[in-house]
Amino acid sequence: MRFRAILLVLLLVASSMIFVGCSPKSLVSTSQEISIGRDAAQQVESQYKVDKDPKLNALVNNLGQNLVKCSDRQDITYTFKILDVKEVNAFSLPGGWIYVNKGLIDETGGNTDELAGVIAHEIGHVVARHHAAMMGRQLQAGILIGTLTKGDVTTLANIAANITLLRWSRKQEYEADKLGIAEMWRCRNRGPDYNPQGLINFFGQLEAKQQKEPSKFEQILATHPVTSERIKRAQEYLDELKAGKAQPE
Ligand SMILES: [Zn+2]
User: Is 207 marked active-site?
Assistant: First the structure.
């Protein structure tokens, strides 16, 4: 595994030399995304217990795969898993691995629209190839290894796992919200009807709830910053879709 990881680093560095001047996300290919994601998924699952509850897994899987069918990225296989972790969080890895904490599912209190909203948002990050963009930027700057692992590198999987803890930019959050809302909107016509308002409501509630129990929401708010501007933009986009003034991109 270590050899493969080193090979991947070399490949990434080589491709960055060839494609100097290209957009950061074009420096990381889909197959590289998948390899890195697979290693990172192994690492995540060695660190955290995966919840195997059949009913909950069926719920998350069905939501995820239904939303994927309404998404703009079909060139990868998406995997949805639940982590037996109390903190409210969900995250995606390069290449389509998406994890939802049990704590987040509990927080939605059985509201399928809210859970679908969070999952749709995570799919949005994968569709927009935000992980590839992040890794590509680090490559361009020549600081991929040092920055992402604070100088303590063993394998590329470490780098990818650390990516889950990095904060997305506001622009990336707007984009993932928009793509998530678009997925849910398209699904309304094609199959299961998920209300995109669930996405906006859930992220909107996080900020208010954080005041009471900051530690419970720390991770999700650090990795997916919620701002009033973000909520406003998501609501405006949904209202435009409803009014027929916008088309899901
Ligand atoms: Zn996000």
Answer: no
